[in-house]
UniProtKB/TrEMBL annotation:
This is J domain-containing protein. InterPro entries: DnaJ_domain, HscB, HscB_C_sf, HscB_oligo_C, J_dom_sf. It holds the Pfam family HSCB_C. Keywords: Chaperone, Cytoplasm, Mitochondrion.
Length: 258
């Protein structure tokens, strides 16, 4: 009852072990609102591994919605302009709840990150890692542990398309129910077919081909999120993150088996 013509999604990947044909991922879904669904509960149950929350690290997130610069006087030497660490004396500063993840890396608050995020992350860890301040006071060691954890959370959040998208929406005060499922028959059918293809794949080449095609779908909805977010169309942006979650979980399944 799911197959309603050539428009439905299919995978056509060769399963090396059995010589059977597996349906191929089609051209990514067009960025339009999905049609109302009457997907069965059985279909939803079979999709369990692709659900779940691909969440934004939350240790500091609740305090990060504030904007504005976050530099002041160093608690140790009194020099002005101290940020996560003091540029004058090198002392690690206490966490400022007004600092968001983009400010930590000197980035604009936007979805498309062009700068070297990993390089900036490593630079901060060279200054903030607790092992580098083991000879300092207990207070500064505590600051270093908190700042280092904050930088790690920030890097993990901004380095992935979905968590970065969710974080941007969070900063704009948009709540996303990450447990909500999409009742779109075509998407649910596609997810089950991907799962079947992953389970049946017996070699890395087949898995890499599946992964590559799923990543293309993820990139398509990532671009759609960027366009919707820049236009402040938050309803469509939220829809994009919901679909991104399914494809990201599908990619994770291929990674587990590789």
């Amino acid at each position: 009852m799911w197959r309603r013509g050539a428009g439905l999604l299919r995978l056509h990947l060769t399963a090396a072990s059995a010589g059977r044909r597996v349906r191929r991922l089609p051209v990514p879904l067009p960025p339009a609102a999905p049609s109302p669904s009457t997907a069965s509960s059985c279909c939803c149950q079979n999709l369990g591994i692709f659900r779940g929350s691909v969440g934004v690290p939350s240790r500091f997130l609740s305090n990060q919605a504030g904007g504005g610069g976050a530099s002041g006087a160093c608690w140790s030497c009194g020099a002005t302009g101290a940020f996560l660490s003091c540029g004058a004396c090198g002392s690690v500063q206490p966490v400022d709840p007004a600092v968001d993840y983009f400010q930590i890396f000197g980035l604009k608050r936007e979805y498309n990150i062009k700068d070297n995020l990993e390089g900036r992350y490593k630079e901060w860890q060279k200054k903030l890692h607790p092992d580098l301040v083991h000879s300092k006071s207990e207070k500064e060691r505590g600051y270093a542990a908190e700042q280092s954890a904050l930088v790690i959370d920030a890097y993990r959040t901004l380095s992935k398309p979905l968590s970065r998208a969710l974080y941007l929406l969070k900063l704009d005060g948009i709540h996303v129910d990450e447990e909500k499922t999409i009742n779109d028959p075509e998407l649910l059918m596609e997810m089950m077919e991907i799962r079947e293809a992953v389970n049946d794949a017996s070699d890395s080449q087949t898995l890499e081909k599946i992964q590559s095609q799923v990543k293309k779908k993820l990139e398509t909805w990532s671009q759609f999120f960027q366009e919707a977010f820049e236009m402040k169309n938050f309803d469509r942006a939220v829809e994009a993150t919901q679909r991104m979650r399914y494809y990201e979980r599908a990619v994770e399944e291929t990674v587990k088996k590789l």
